[in-house]
Amino acid sequence: MRARDVLELTLLAAIWGASFLFMRIAAPQFGPVALAAVRVAGAALVLLPLLGLRGEAAALRRHWRAIALVGVMNSALPFALFGFAALSISAGLSSIFNAGTPLFTALIAWLWLHDRLDRRRSAGLALGLAGVLGLAGHNAGLRGDVTDLQPALAVLACLAATLLYAA
Q1: Among 86, 5, 88, 101, which Cα is nearest to 39's?
Q2: Beta carbons within 10 angstroms of residue 112's beta carbon
Q3: I need a labelling partner for 26 at 20 to 30 A (CA). Which of 56, 82, 95, 166 fits?
Q4: In angstroms, rounded to a whole number, what is the distance separating the alpha carbons of residues 85 and 28?
Q5: Which is more confident, 164 or 17?
Q6: What is the per-residue burial (b if ≥16 Cβ within 10 Å, else e) of 57-80?
Q7: CA nearest 121: which of 109, 132, 113?
Q8: Residue 44's pLDDT is what?
């Protein structure tokens, strides 16, 4: 990797990781749905002028339904689900669950696109899923002696969000 690639990857990781901290701080104040709306609106305020500058506004008008569907499935709903999770689990734990996105992507590719999972890929997928679930299950306090369902619901929200990202 070139130094610039490492710098860009580090910057991307910092921005992505900071979003989980932001959600953890802001979700109790705004609520998960309002927070997701603010995030989506903020992104639209940045991206729409860029679309216009690139001369692609006509494409948005032609394909607005598909773009809206992808926006809801890949941004709005996951943002709201991670915001809900942020009400009861840590930002670090949410980000660990986010690591499940490529694992779910591989499962979807296998089920939907019939991408072949050889023995090595299957082992890697199983190990990755076990690692994410093991870390998260332990850190979320998902034990038999815990009666509070809130952490379990937060875990399910994170899993649903990562599944939507993968789809």
Answers
A1: 86
A2: 9
A3: 166
A4: 10
A5: 164
A6: eeeeeeeeeeeeeeeeeebbbbbb
A7: 109
A8: 92
Distance CA 80, CA 116 (A): 33
State the CB neighbour count (10 A cutoff) for residue 125.
17
Mention every residue, 6+ apart, whose C-beta is less than 8 A from residue 27: 35, 83, 84, 86, 87
What are the tokens at 10? 């580090």
Long-range residue pairs from 104-112, CB within 8 A, at least 24 positions apart, any chain: 104/162, 104/163, 104/165, 104/166, 104/167, 105/166, 107/166, 108/166, 108/167
The two structure tokens encoding residue 143: 């034990």
Of the candidates 43, 38, 46, which has an alpha carbon nearest to the alpha carbon of residue 80? 38
The residue type found at 15 is I
pLDDT surpasses 70 at 142: no
Give the pair of three-digit tokens for residue 24. Answer: 């953890």
What mean pLDDT do residues 126-151 have? 71
CA 34 to chain centre: 17
Residue 163: helix, strand or coil by DSSP?
helix
pTM beyond 0.90: the answer is no
How many CB atoms are closer than 10 A to CB 165?
A: 19
